[in-house]
Amino acid sequence: MTDTAGVAGQESRSTDFSDDEVIIGLEIHCQLDTRTKLFCGCSTDYRDDRPNSHVCPVCLGLPGSLPRVNKKAIEFALRVGKALNCTVPDESEFARKNYFYPDLNKGFQITQYDKPLAVKGYLDIEGEEGEKRIRITRVHVEEDPGRLVHKGGADRAKYTLVDYNRAGIPLIEIVTEPDLRSPKEARRFLNKLRATLEYLGVFDSEKEGSLRVDANISIQPKGWFGREGRGKGDRGRAEVKNISSYKGVEKALTFEVTRQKNALRRGQRLETETRHFVETRGITTSSRSKEMEQDYRYFPEPDLLPLRVCDLAAGIVLPELPDARRARFLSEYGCSPIHARTLTGDLRLAEFYEQVAGSDPIPAATWVADTLLGELNYRDMTVSRVSPVWFRDLILLVKEGSVTDKGGVEVLRSLLDQLRESGSCETPDQCVRRLGLKVLERTGGAGEEQDPVTKASREAVAEHPQAVADFHAGRKEAFNFLVGQVMKKTRGRAKPADVNQILLGILGEED
Amino acid sequence: MATISFSQKDGHNAFIPTLSEADTGPGALSGIPLAGQDNISTRGLPTTCGSRILEGYVPPYDAHVVTLLKKAGAAIVGKTNMDEFGMGTTTENSAFGPTKNPADPSRVPGGSSGGSAAAVASGMVRMALGTDTGGSIRCPAAFCGIVGHKPTYGRVSRYGLIAYANSLEQIGPMARSVSDISLLMEVLSGYDPRDSTSINCPYSHIPDPEIRGLKIGVPEEYFGEGVDAKVASVVWDGITLLERKGAEVITCRIPSMVYALAAYYVTCTSEASSNLARFDGVRYGPPADPKLPWHDAFQQQRRHGFGIEVKRRIMLGTFALSSGYYGKYYAKAQAARQQVRNDFLRLFRTFDVIAGPTMPTVAFRLGEKTDPLSMYLSDILTVPANLAGIPAISVPCGTSDGLPVGLQIMGPHFKDERVIDVAYAFEQGVSR
Ligand SMILES: [Zn+2]
After folding, report:
1. Which residues of chain A does B270 touch, with a Cβ-Cβ cutoff of 8 Å?
2. CB A100 to CB B295 under 8 A?
3. In chain A, how many H helices and how many E strands?
């Protein structure tokens, strides 16, 4: 296996590739966040428990056991179908996908085949050139298989263990039309999809292994896609299987674009093939194993009745979805378009923001969307770790002027570090005092000479005669330099207005 | 809890495991020794479907019907022999050796529930469970001279029945008298939420022999080519007896019969090929060789674990479902199945029940049927009821050359009571 495998042959004719376009379609598998499994009553909360402790005759596939459909899982999937603007057919049906694999408890997976739960929808995303509609082919429900465990790693383990705790967890598969035109668009689509699923309350992206993506990618002459009889001139495509992270999707696709472009430039013909994404190396490799090309012998699952769920679907009332919330953030809070998009792109962030927005929502938006998010990303933390209560207090301290903006950031960093290390943190007030970041209140009148800002200003003026001279020569930046010196001496705790006023006073005296 | 002792000699290889003592309790079946079948899960008792591939498998749970039997106080004294996974018409396809017919030990008891039929016919137990996918209760009942009923599809829960062909099979009662069939039906039927194909239609009925004015349809196809003339004549005598008791007998036709056997075998082998995929040696049964790559280990396991007939049907079903052939076989079989169902629905607008022979011949000699196709052909009269999902009973109606012959009575969906009444009327008429 090499990263250039899958190149089928040489083409003598050289072509101009400047007009090519990248064509991407995605198949996304998400675990639905139900309390019990898809076909039995076992709990889905298995991640911290012993292997094979959340199993029963049904999800172990013991002989004689029969599946029964978890209505909640169907309802969750219908929410997704509706949110993706799909049609729900009168009748849908479960089918068996037959193949052998040690993690597959019954020798087949119960999934949906030619009669999926929901079809023909769309999701609007922010594309490379403005708002873009990505068509959804279908949404269907299926069961997750078990999981193979290799103690000490796949290369070193002498045997394979099988854990069926995951077997029977409900999955939805969402298939897009090949409407995405760049790895970045694919990433944006996934982000939007994730936000939508979380808003619907059917998906928890923070659970390990809750999302897996297969991506179809090819590079074709512009306009090839959508052309009549486009089978002709197809340059072949790669199906990259089993990408398990959001970042991974963009990485894998970016790698594929480069690999395919290089091959085409060298005049090679690309073969349609299945490839694997090697997350650790950021590359894809050809996988020509037979198991990938097998015939799944689908047929209707005889142990389950067809689903007639139009009424159930009609009764579902969708919650506010990301686009609606973004519009509300613009109108209700006056957020900037960029802030509104960032804040509503993640359910937890949006809810966090609404809890801290208070009476001053615009600076709060900056604090959450820019400062907090940046500091969280830097620490690889999520917003769910942060208490809106203390964050609101922190914003308030800054707003009241007890701490400067800069001091506020310093407090935030300290509190996040504490959270990351010990899981708890001080109050912002305690932190401000401990770090001595409280803004220096100017003492006027008789005590003026004792006032620390005044003292610092006098020192700055005394220590930098050249700057003073430049100031008097009319050079503005000299004044800014002196302000900086005062800030440095007061460790940022002086109010800028105070510093300006005091410095101007002192410089005026010297005239 | 009380126990009964069970020390009958099993001269016909009817049982796989037996218990010398079995629990019993109060209830409708209190103290009655009853045989389970080797494909119906029983907690703590080996359940192997007559197959080597499940050797040593002891289910950790009871099938729904077993729970119901225990609740009714029945004493389950053992598990009966059967064709491996229910695939056969003679009970010769068992890893535990063939069962012999108590009516003539040189003959097969029929199948696949031959062990249950032999256990009842020989008097070892008063009643037994059987499973009927294409005639597996009715055929051995006919061959051994007892009563066997295949309930309407959905009337008895399949939870815990190790699947052969899910869309066709039902668990049903086998006994020496129609009253006992009725008694056992009362216990077995009813809704089970664990089986999505289960239907809420409990059976609570005392057989009534009054059949005056009943319209009986007799399909020409049930007396056509391949049906032994002596068997046909015995069955006609039986139908005439019903006529004498006041029923009206009219001949009719089931045109879709020509497709029935093919539709049946395509459907059951397709479903079986998928159902039996789970026997890979990972979770139960003899363990697969851990030194081999999994693919090879699975192959070895299945090559040695399954018998020849099971492998044949897995291959047939795998082929029928494969891409490019699905439309030609599986999809067509479902269309044919719908035609069979439609034919019965049409007939039941005119007739109350349909009657004919259960089997085209009497019991075969052991080892007589070596050609699979001729064996499959002998299912022709029983598979239509499975394809249509309707209730069908086989009741003894005399002998041909000293061997038992069965009269089959089929009724509309959920009219199990009606076919049991007609069988009861017949039984009463014969004994008088
Ligand atoms: Zn379970």
Report:
1. 299
2. yes
3. 16, 15
For residue A106, the chain B residue with the least C-alpha distance is B278
Residue B7 touches chain A, beta carbons under 8 Å? no
DSSP three-state, residue B130? strand
All domains of chain B in start order, with CATH = 2-259+330-424 (3.90.1300.10)
CB contact set of A200 (below 8 Å; sequence gap of 6+): A76, A79, A80, A83, A318, A319, A321
Distance from residue A46's CA to the centre of ligand 1 (Å) = 12
Starting from the edge strand earliest in sequence, which strands make up the sheet with B147-150, in order?
B15-18, B75-80, B33-37, B127-132, B170-175, B147-150, B392-400, B403-410, B353-357, B215-219, B248-252
CB-based contact B398:B373 (threshold 8 Å): no
Query: For residue A86, how far is the Cα from the chain centroid?
Result: 23
Task: Return the structure tokens found at A397.
Answer: 């301290």
Q: Which residues of B touch A305 (CB under 8 A)?
A: 196-197
Cα separation, A83 vs A200, whole angstroms: 8
Q: Based on the number of CB atoms within 10 Å of its own CB, is B326 exposed (0-12), middle (13-18) or buried (19 or more)?
A: middle
**Cβ count near B52 (within 10 Å):** 18
For chain A, give every domain's residue range.
Answer: 7-314, 322-435, 445-509
Read off the amino acid at residue B42: T
The Cβ of residue A230 has, within 10 Å, a number of other Cβ atoms equal to 12
B6: tokens are 């069970």
| Residue B118 C-beta-side C-alpha neighbours within 13 Å | 34
Q: Looking at the domain that runs over A445-509, which CATH code has it been given?
A: 1.10.10.410
Contacts of A272 (CB under 8 A, 6+ apart): A234, A236, A237, A238, A239
CB-based contact (8 Å) between B152 and chain A?
no
Cα atoms found within 13 Å of the Cα of residue B265, Cβ hemisphere only: 20
Kindly state the DSSP code that residue A64 receives in the 8-state scheme: T
Q: What is the pLDDT along chain A (511 residues), one digit of tens a residue?
A: 344 444 444 444 445 666 789 999 999 999 999 999 999 999 999 988 999 999 999 999 999 999 999 999 999 999 999 999 999 999 999 999 999 999 999 999 999 999 999 999 999 998 777 889 999 999 999 999 999 998 887 778 888 899 999 999 999 999 999 999 999 999 999 999 999 999 999 999 888 888 999 999 999 888 776 666 555 667 778 899 889 888 899 999 999 999 999 988 888 888 888 899 988 888 999 876 544 567 999 999 999 999 999 999 999 999 999 999 999 999 999 999 999 999 999 999 999 999 999 888 999 999 999 999 999 999 999 999 899 999 999 998 888 888 888 888 988 999 999 999 988 899 888 888 888 777 777 766 656 667 888 888 888 888 998 988 898 888 888 899 998 888 888 877 788 888 888 888 888 875 5
List residues bridging with B394 in a β-sheet.
B148, B408
Helix A476-489 and helix A496-509, axial crossing angle in degrees, nearest 10: 120
Give 3-state DSSP helix, strand, coil % of chain B, rounded to 5. 35, 20, 45
Cβ–Cβ of A63/B54 closer than 8 Å? Answer: yes
What are phi and psi for residue A174, nearest 5 degrees? -115, 125
**CA atoms A28, A34, A36, A40: torsion sign:** negative
DSSP state, residue B24: E
Distance CA A345, CA A193 (A): 10
> What DSSP line would sit under A413-440, residue for residue?
HHHHHHHHHHS----HHHHHHHHT-PPB
Neighbours of A278 (CB within 10 A): 15
Residues in chain B: 432
